[in-house]
């Protein structure tokens, strides 16, 4: 079987969101091919996971990243190397004549996702809506008092969905900023509009300019929400593409 997909172009304003649903990957043959995509260090890390589902999720995370980056240039998936900045954010180790890709990975039960752009800061978070919410104490560490108030205005049936909306927005922004614990999440308050035609905004007491950021929320399945945060003055809709992909095998464009 020919395990390859066509090359793609990533323009300066483009935002590409890649989604891999773990249930889409069924064959043992394909999993064995994926094993060979990882570096020796990644293979060692893969073996350290105790639970099979965690092993599989790690495998797909590494393979989705490596094979997707190779769709944009003539670099084999195994050649990519990554470095962590001082806050723990992963970045591509520079390669001569390779464009300045920026990326962000996220995963949850059943889904691995990757956002890819050029040059700009980007953050991504995916959440499984069927997972039990965090405790009240953890919720207060993540959400501002105003956000908690807004969630409580919803009926109990809809509170969980709105909680994950706020959580995904906030985590995507924090990942995009790339400074980890230096950003205090409860000092950021998101304002989710009532209609899709309005922009999601936020206010903060921290040194972050909300005018510099745009957000895109999508619901790739009944159980998942995905949010991309990107530092840009432009609206995202005309430059945003979503692909559902089985790495090295096939894909479907959502948007």
The pLDDT mean sits at 88
Question: Which regions have little confidence, pLDDT < 50, spanning 5+ residues?
Answer: none
What is the H-and-E element order? EHHHEEEEEHHHEEEEEE
Radius of gyration: 18 Å
Strand order of the largest sheet: 4-5-1-11-12
Measured by DSSP, the beta-strand proportion falls in: 25-35%
Question: What oligomerization state is this entry in?
Answer: single chain
> What is the general shape?
globular
Percent helix: 25-40%
The rounded distance between the terminal residues' Cα atoms is 28 Å
Structural class: alpha+beta
Question: Can you give a write-up of this model?
Answer:
With 255 residues, this protein is α+β, with helices and mostly antiparallel strands. 30% of the residues lie in helices and 28% in strands. The chain has 6 helices and 12 strands. It has helices at residues 28-37, 40-48, 52-71, 136-142, 145-152, 156-177; strands at residues 15-21, 82-84, 90-92, 101-108, 111-118, 122-128, 188-191, 201-204, 213-221, 224-231, 240-246, 250-253. The strands form 4 sheets. Strands 4-5-1-11-12 form a 5-stranded mixed sheet, covered by helices on one side. A 3-stranded antiparallel sheet has the order 6-10-9, covered by helices on one side. Strands 2-3 form a two-stranded antiparallel sheet. Helix 2 (40-48) packs antiparallel against helix 3 and helix 5 runs antiparallel to helix 6. The longest helix has 22 residues, at 156-177. The chain is globular, with a radius of gyration of 18 Å. The relative contact order is 0.18.
């Amino acid at each position: 079987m020919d395990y390859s997909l066509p090359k793609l172009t990533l323009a300066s304003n483009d935002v590409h969101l890649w989604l891999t649903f773990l249930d889409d990957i069924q064959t043992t043959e394909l999993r064995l091919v994926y094993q060979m995509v990882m570096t020796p260090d990644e293979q060692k890390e893969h073996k350290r996971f105790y639970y099979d589902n965690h092993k599989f999720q790690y495998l797909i995370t590494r393979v989705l990243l490596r094979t997707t980056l190779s769709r944009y240039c003539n670099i084999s998936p195994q050649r990519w190397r990554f470095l962590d900045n001082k806050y723990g954010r992963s970045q591509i180790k520079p390669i001569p004549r390779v464009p300045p890709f920026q990326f962000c990975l996220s995963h949850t039960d059943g889904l691995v996702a990757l956002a890819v752009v050029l040059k700009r800061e980007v953050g991504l978070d995916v959440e499984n809506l069927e997972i039990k919410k965090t405790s009240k104490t953890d919720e207060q560490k993540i959400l501002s008092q105003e956000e908690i108030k807004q969630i409580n205005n919803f009926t109990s049936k809809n509170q969980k969905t709105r909680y994950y909306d706020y959580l995904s927005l906030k985590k995507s922004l924090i990942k995009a900023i790339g400074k980890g614990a230096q950003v205090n999440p409860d000092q950021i308050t998101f304002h989710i509009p009532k209609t899709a035609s309005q922009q999601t905004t936020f206010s903060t007491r921290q040194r972050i300019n909300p005018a510099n950021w745009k957000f895109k929320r999508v619901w790739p399945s009944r159980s998942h929400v995905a949010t991309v945060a990107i530092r840009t003055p432009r609206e995202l809709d005309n430059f945003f593409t979503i692909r559902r992909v089985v790495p090295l095998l096939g894909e479907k464009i959502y948007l």
